[in-house]
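Figure 6 in text form: structure in, sequence out.
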């Protein structure tokens, strides 16, 4: 096996097994992905939590250590602990089966765990090098923990000297090409202008350029033509609509509850529109973070702040869950997990039960991070309105209240027995301690008790159709009559203020945050990750506010600080990933030890430094990336066959990657080329058949739009940093037979027929709309032969034109970007 082929195989294994290539030495035989997964999921956790206390680095009963493969093979006073491939003769298996020694001496392993060890030993006792020596506890953290590349301070790396005389070359090109030069690779050519303009439109605003826009750019010979086009698209409102989508994937945005009933959240669209506005306004990243984590702790006279903190309302809610304690615990855990995923690029969920298996994240860290959210309560009674608007509404509404007091009193009297029965029925379905929380006066509750009462209260209104479903016929008739009387005063009624799904902190006593199942149930205060605290002290200075704890403001300020190297690297890598299809760190939600190291660490830090210099705003970063030759490179390369062996993932950027359009881009592009796409920005979501951008289509977690789902749209159940990119028969069937695509083909055909163009011109225009380029002579000739063969009648000609458009929309040139 040649060294080049060996490296290619290792790179492929790295991609599938999440094992960094550098962890495999030249003499190692790569373990199978299944064996590695089995060790990490079934063996390592048991060794760490059940064995290392007595057989680790601090204590070795019987001379036995079980914290490395070498130590396990060496064994202790009784001999080797395992014999790889011979489970029945291995002392370790005999001990955990209680056939000889009985280990662990208390609380023996489950039958499933014992079988997992038997399988592990029998299959060769794979122990990935990336796992190294296990530690029973990460505390105290070591210098090596703190020296992990992602935690180190940013280095404003010097731009490499060019390998030619042209010192005007773009800094990004110089970073990328310096690596190519060291690897013996040469960059490919720049793509042609027609290809670039189509690529840029999809990259910045998510829809294709019109033929007229392509012509205008191609004809512009000015030196600043490219920069001018970039600036124009960055100022286009469609920029915010397109780039909001990548953020909504990260924060698991959806408009439904998620399980069981999967009810539609009719007001959460305000959060979506907040994200769109933020990108269009080029809001600094630290402000963007602060509003989403702690908008309610900011100026509430600005309704945008309450809309932004809807981020903390995006988790799953179960409308009929009686286990309120467990339900809220899941909500809080998910809130903690997604904050770490989105802002820190680190999965922390493993640290809920024990110190993280791979990364220097303590179990204490997890619950200290969760403690920032301990006082949070969900609010459905607040409005997206300024203080002046709320005051005006209250004043005007008072007149209606006074005029309708009599009829409303009658309604209340009629409904009171039904409400009482429903309250009794609802509350009694919960455990007794939760019932006690609900019955306790709010002023006496802790934040946790208020959260429990909230969950009970929601079920009163949502489960079983609410209290009015049980009205008898006589009372139904009376209720209808009273509502009619109430309606007579509608001319005096002020329109309701717009509601918003948001959160605030509880105003009373904050319940303590405890590590569950801890030996002493230690209470923890809010604190940042220990490994990211240079002085070892992670406790923040929290300034309580008049109406809130101030905890989340402290967290947001720390995340958004420009000297927080981890968070700066994470967000810059996300922007790079969105432009290139792959980040400089290929695992954008995992900057830890199971993630991949950056391919160009100096460039990543240099970009982060520029991001900070430019005020933490995104548009200058877009301009910087898009003006590089690296972004403009062609997908074609004269030596691509040879280079793919050295760089199968195209990670070194010697050429551009071919990328399929995202689900929303496919749908929006069809509407765009058919001439149907509405340019309306913002507002409540719409049914899928409405000709608006996919961003505004109602999104349900359990029943997403079939077209978008087929092309891998994120479902909103978890943070998605990079979507799957599948190729399935369902996609082909939807594109060929789906009603939606056929309807767009018909609309496109009508567009080609408009203006009475000669048939060749109409077909040329169709090619340009769908593919962004002029057809060659053979393509045009085949199109003409298909549409006009046999001198068809007008109706037949139209149907053939529809089929022609259908073919264009099914072609790879429509679905993929060069």
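Output sequence:
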């Amino acid at each position: 096996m040649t060294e080049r082929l060996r490296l290619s195989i290792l790179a492929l294994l790295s991609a599938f097994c999440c094992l960094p290539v550098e962890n495999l030495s030249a003499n190692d035989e790569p373990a199978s992905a299944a064996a590695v997964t089995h060790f990490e999921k079934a063996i390592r956790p048991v060794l760490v939590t059940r064995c290392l206390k007595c057989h680790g680095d601090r204590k070795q009963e019987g001379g036995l250590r079980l914290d490395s493969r070498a130590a396990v093979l060496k064994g202790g006073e009784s001999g080797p602990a395992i014999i790889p491939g011979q489970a029945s003769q291995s002392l370790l298996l005999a001990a955990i089966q209680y056939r000889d020694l009985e280990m662990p001496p208390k609380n023996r392993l489950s039958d499933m765990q014992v079988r997992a060890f038997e399988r592990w030993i029998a299959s060769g006792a794979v122990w990935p090098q990336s796992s190294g020596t296990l530690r029973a506890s990460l505390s105290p953290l070591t210098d090596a923990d703190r020296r992990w590349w992602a935690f180190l301070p940013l280095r404003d790396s010097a731009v490499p000297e060019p390998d030619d005389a042209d010192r005007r070359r773009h800094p990004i090109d110089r970073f990328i090409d310096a690596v190519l030069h060291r690897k013996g690779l040469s960059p490919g050519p720049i793509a042609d202008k027609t290809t670039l303009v189509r690529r840029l439109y999809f990259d910045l605003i998510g829809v294709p350029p019109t033929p007229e826009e392509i012509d205008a750019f191609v004809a512009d010979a000015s030196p600043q033509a490219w920069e001018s086009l970039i600036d124009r698209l960055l100022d286009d409102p469609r920029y915010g609509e397109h780039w909001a989508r990548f953020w909504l994937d990260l924060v698991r945005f959806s408009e439904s509850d998620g399980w069981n009933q999967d009810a539609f959240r009719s007001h959460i669209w305000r959060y979506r529109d907040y994200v769109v506005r933020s990108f269009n306004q080029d809001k600094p990243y630290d402000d963007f973070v602060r509003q989403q984590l702690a908008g309610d702790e900011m100026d509430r006279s600005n309704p945008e702040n309450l809309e932004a903190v809807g981020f903390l309302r995006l988790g799953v809610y179960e409308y009929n869950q009686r286990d309120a304690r467990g339900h809220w615990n899941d909500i809080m855990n998910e809130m903690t997990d997604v904050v770490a995923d989105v802002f820190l690029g680190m999965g922390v969920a493993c640290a809920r039960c024990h110190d993280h298996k791979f990364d220097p994240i303590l179990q204490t860290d997890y619950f200290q991070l969760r403690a920032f959210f301990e006082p949070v309560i969900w609010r459905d009674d607040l409005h997206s309105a300024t203080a002046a608007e709320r005051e005006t509404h209250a004043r005007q509404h008072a007149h209606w209240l006074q005029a309708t007091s009599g009829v409303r009193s009658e309604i209340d009297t009629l409904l009171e027995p039904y409400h009482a029965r429903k309250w009794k029925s609802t509350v009694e379905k919960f455990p007794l301690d939760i019932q006690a929380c609900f019955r306790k006066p709010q002023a006496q509750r802790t934040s946790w008790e208020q959260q429990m009462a909230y969950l009970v209260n929601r079920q009163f209104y949502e489960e079983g159709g609410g209290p009015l479903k049980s009205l008898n016929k006589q009372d139904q008739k009376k209720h209808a009559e009273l509502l009619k009387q109430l309606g007579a005063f509608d001319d005096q009624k002020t329109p309701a203020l717009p509601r918003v799904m948001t959160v605030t902190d509880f105003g009373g006593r904050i319940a303590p945050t405890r590590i569950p199942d801890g030996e002493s149930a230690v209470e923890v205060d809010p604190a940042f990750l220990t490994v990211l605290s240079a002085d070892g002290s992670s406790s923040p200075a929290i300034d309580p506010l008049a109406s809130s704890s101030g905890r989340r403001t402290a967290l947001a300020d720390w995340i958004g600080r420009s000297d927080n190297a981890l968070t700066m690297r994470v967000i810059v890598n996300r922007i790079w990933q969105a432009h290139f299809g792959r980040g400089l760190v290929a695992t954008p939600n995992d900057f830890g030890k199971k993630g991949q190291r950056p391919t160009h660490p100096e460039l990543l830090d240099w970009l982060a430094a520029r991001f900070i210099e430019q005020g933490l705003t995104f548009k200058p970063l877009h301009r910087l990336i898009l003006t590089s030759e690296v972004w403009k490179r062609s997908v074609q390369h004269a030596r691509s066959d040879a280079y793919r062996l050295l760089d199968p993932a195209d990670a070194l950027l010697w050429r551009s990657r071919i990328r399929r359009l995202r689900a929303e881009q496919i749908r929006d592009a069809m509407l765009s080329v058919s001439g149907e796409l509405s340019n309306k920005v913002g507002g409540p979501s719409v049914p899928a058949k409405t000709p608006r951008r996919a961003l505004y289509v109602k999104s349900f977690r359990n029943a997403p739009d079939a077209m978008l789902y087929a092309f891998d749209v994120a479902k909103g159940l978890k943070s998605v940093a990079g979507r799957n990119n599948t190729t399935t028969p369902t996609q082909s069937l939807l594109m060929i037979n789906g009603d939606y695509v056929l309807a767009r083909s018909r609309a496109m055909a009508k567009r080609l027929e408009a203006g009475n163009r000669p048939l060749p011109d109409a077909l040329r225009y169709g090619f340009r709309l769908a593919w962004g380029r002029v057809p060659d002579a053979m393509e045009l000739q085949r199109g003409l032969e298909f549409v006009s063969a046999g001198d068809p009648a007008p109706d037949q000609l139209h149907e053939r034109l529809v089929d022609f458009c259908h073919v264009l929309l099914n072609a790879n040139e429509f679905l993929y970007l060069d």
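Caption detail: Strands lie at 376-379, 502-505, 513-514, 523-524, 659-660, 816-817.
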